[in-house]
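In response to reviewer comment 3 from the previous cycle, which asked for concrete evidence that the modeling workflow produces usable outputs, we include below a single protein chain processed end to end. The sequence was submitted unchanged, and the resulting structure tokens are shown without manual editing.
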Amino acid sequence: MQELFRQNRKMGRPPMRWLVRKNGLPFASFLFCPDKTHKTAVARNRSKRILRELVRNHISLIPVGYDCALLVQKEFAKLSKEDREVLFLSALKQFP
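The workflow returned the following structure tokens.
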């Protein structure tokens, strides 16, 4: 995963960014990363739960063979469910 942060392609815009890198495997792997603006573990875990649910709901749209890191700021969890989904899908459209 460290290689993902060194050599990647960035997609999306704040409060949610994607870092992607080809992994050459027949599946996609995900890393959910709330940033340091999340002050408590409760806030970080809420953001991770939201991201996991978005990935679970749209896994068929995500190409296989990539490592993906989803970076979010605390404002992400404060958005409405529809706004989060629109933000997620707009970043997904930029996928290589």
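The first strand starts at residue 9 and ends at 13. We consider this sufficient to address the reviewer's concern, and the full set will be provided in the supplementary archive.
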